[in-house]
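Before relying on records like the one below, remember that each one covers exactly one chain. Contacts with other chains, cofactors or solvent are not represented anywhere in the record.
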Amino acid sequence: MDDDRDGSLSMRLAALALDGGRLTDDLVTAPAVRGTLLADLALHGRVRETEDAVEFDDAPTGFAPADRLLTEGAPSLTELLRRGPVDQEDLAAEHLRRGSWTARRRLLGRRYVDFRTDRTQADERALDVPRIEPWTPEDATLAAVAPG
């Protein structure tokens, strides 16, 4: 994967899914996180489709959530999407590590502050406004899985 992981689909989805600074706790976000990680891997040439399987280049990517998804895996692609080892907590940890988010403890849990609000707001606008120009593969994927 390239060096700009802050702009990866999974990191962008995590920012869009923040709800008042809290991580979204629903049935859709965790599979969407895993799906965008798989899409990130595919867009970077790390996924191959064979006649009877989907194969992953499991060499380390340097991106902790993707590496965890690849190393811990699941018995099938369906199982990986449904109950894989990575969720929004992993992406929050990565945002914190990179400094794109900070966290504050509150009485009712942790709240996150997004320091890449320019990127998040641009994504929100792009998802709300009909597009005239063609979608990039990344933006089209994000539009398909982003909370809305």
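The chain has a mean pLDDT of 89.
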